[in-house]
Design goal:
mainly alpha; 7 helices
Length: 162
């Protein structure tokens, strides 16, 4: 008989995010962090791309009430984020509507243009790019905790650091 796996503090802090998004988001986030820490920079960059794709779908769900289904190809990533940024100001808190999508576009661009997701980037996958992606993912998770769990950024950062 196995004992049920207890939820991580991050899962608890993000419990009000629908499970279909929360579980995928945390899986991509934890893999990104693990791969970066272990020096697997290209793999970390690929996980960052998955993190962005899940985050985009979550934000679509929050702002528009529906999202691109998992298993379906996302249209142009930057265009989809632009739709979030230009959505009505009462559709969601400003951070989720404008700031997070812009951060996701930067992350996704790094994944696509820096020798991570495609051949021919300006540079090969490397430590500083991977560290930047990991910190932006930390920031995004902290923002989600701040919004969904009602903690301050400092408290959210403590959870992420733990």
């Amino acid at each position: 008989m196995s004992t049920p796996k207890s939820e991580s503090p991050l899962e608890q802090a993000l419990a009000s995010i629908p499970a279909q998004f929360r579980k995928r988001l945390l899986t991509a986030y934890e893999k990104l962090k693990r791969d970066h820490a272990e020096g697997r920079y290209e793999t970390a960059g690929l996980s960052a791309g998955k993190f962005c794709e899940v985050s985009l779908r979550l934000l679509q769900h929050v702002i528009f009430g529906s999202s691109t289904p998992f298993g379906s190809k996302l249209p142009n990533f930057a265009d989809e984020c632009r739709k979030l940024v230009t959505s009505p100001s009462n559709s969601a808190v400003e951070s989720l509507r404008t700031v997070v999508p812009r951060a996701l576009v930067f992350m996704y661009t790094m994944r696509s243009k820096r020798g991570i997701g495609h051949v021919g980037g300006d540079v090969d996958a490397n430590h500083i790019d991977s560290a930047t992606l990991a910190r932006l993912a930390d920031w995004t998770i902290c923002e989600l905790i701040r919004v969904y769990h009602g903690l301050s950024l400092e408290e959210a950062q403590d959870l992420v650091d733990a």
